[in-house]
Amino acid sequence: MYKNIFDTHAHYDDERFCEDSQELLSSFPENGISGVISCGVNTESSKANIELAEKYPFIYAAIGYHGLNTEDVPDNYIEVLGELIKHEKVVAIGEIGLDYHYERETRDIQLEIFRKQIEFANEHGLPVIVHDREAHEDTMNILRELKPKGVMHCFSGSVEMAKEIIKLGMYIGLGGAVTFKNAVKPVEVAAFVPEDRLLLETDAPYMTPVPFRGQRCTSLHIPYTAQKIAEVRNTDIQHIFDVTDRNARELFLK
Ligand code: NI
Question: The pTM is what?
Fold first, then answer.
């Protein structure tokens, strides 16, 4: 039985949880889950995650506008964020960032809302939770310039890129991708990241680790991810939970 499992990235407002969310989320403490950050992607989901955070003491909310939801971004989005951060359980601006895999054509808008939200987070002393899919170069340029505190979620870059992110003071979030059969870079990164910069995450309901790929992912699957990370770092699973729980609290709850 493990303890101190801190899932720094999930989406429990997702419709795939609406049927059993009460039962599922209530079971987390007895399964060793010490904290979860449930991330918004637009106004509606940011508000839904705040509601979840009000209901469960171990859930915290991140609020923001994802690069894939540019059509959902209201003109006054910075004002909306300004209202929502007043809630005591809002701990980060996220999930924000660039996705050129699904949407290259909205690139200019994605860049603008990403940049403005980082500036907002910096102004308010909040960490950011960054999504970067096939947009490494633009992501790095903005991070180098604005130097937010925060995490690169579901990190998919090289060890070289991880080094630079760490030098910028940010954390690396690793999830189910490290368990995938074709994972090379995530495994190299899992072996490399300094202990004090590593965070665990699921991206639930997505990114389910092996051997459950294809099923809905929940925070209860994290031990499979941690097992792989512990294996490549030559340590034990509980140690991975202990250090990542400490790191998550340092970044998000201080
Ligand atoms: Ni996500």
Answer: 0.97
pLDDT tens by residue, 210-219: 999 999 999 9
- Cα of 145 from ligand 1 centre, angstroms: 24
Residue 180's Cβ-count burial label (10 Å; 0-12, 13-18, 19+) is: middle
Distance 153 CA to ligand 1 centre (A): 8
Q: Residues whose CB is under 5 A from ligand 1 (ion)?
A: 95, 203
Q: Compute the distance from residue 20 Cα to the ligand 1 centre, in Å.
A: 20
CA of 246 to the centre of ligand 1 (A): 21
Give me the domains of the chain, ranges plus CATH numbers. Answer: 5-252 (3.20.20.140)
77 C-alpha vs ligand 1 centroid, how far in Å?
Answer: 19
Question: How long, in residues, is the chain?
Answer: 254
Q: How far is the CA of 94 from the centre of ligand 1 (A)?
A: 9
How close is the Cα of 116 to the center of ligand 1, in Å?
Answer: 19
Q: How far is the CA of 111 from the centre of ligand 1 (A)?
A: 18
What is the gyration radius of the CA atoms in the chain, in angstroms? 17
Mean pLDDT of all residues in 128-144: 97
Rounded distance between C-alpha atoms, residue 204 and residue 225, angstroms: 13
